[in-house]
């Protein structure tokens, strides 16, 4: 959808990494392995591409307008 190929499994790992980091007890990116940093960089690339498209494509942006639409689109 944003020009970055990512599998469902990768998305799940990225989400788990992000959640663990944000809520504590997860990855410490100041001392992260090369593999963890590569995952983080891919996640950041996906987010940047999604934000760019959301800012320039109203139909794409609408897919994030509420939780129900997000779940029906991506869940």
Features:
about 70% helix; mainly alpha; about 80 residues; globular
Descriptive notes:
By secondary structure, the chain is mainly α. The chain is built from four helices and no strands. The protein has helices at 8-22, 34-56, 58-62, 67-74.
Judged by helices, strands and strand pairing, the structural class is mainly alpha
| Radius of gyration from the alpha-carbon trace, in angstroms | 14 Å
Overall pLDDT level? 84
Low-confidence stretches: none
Helix segment count?
Answer: 4
The run of helices and strands is HHHH
Topology:
Blueprint (H helix, E strand, L loop, with lengths): L7 H15 L11 H23 L1 H5 L4 H8 L1
Summary of the model, kept short:
The chain has 75 residues and is mainly alpha-helical. It has helices at 8-22, 34-56, 58-62, 67-74. The chain contains 4 helices and no strands.
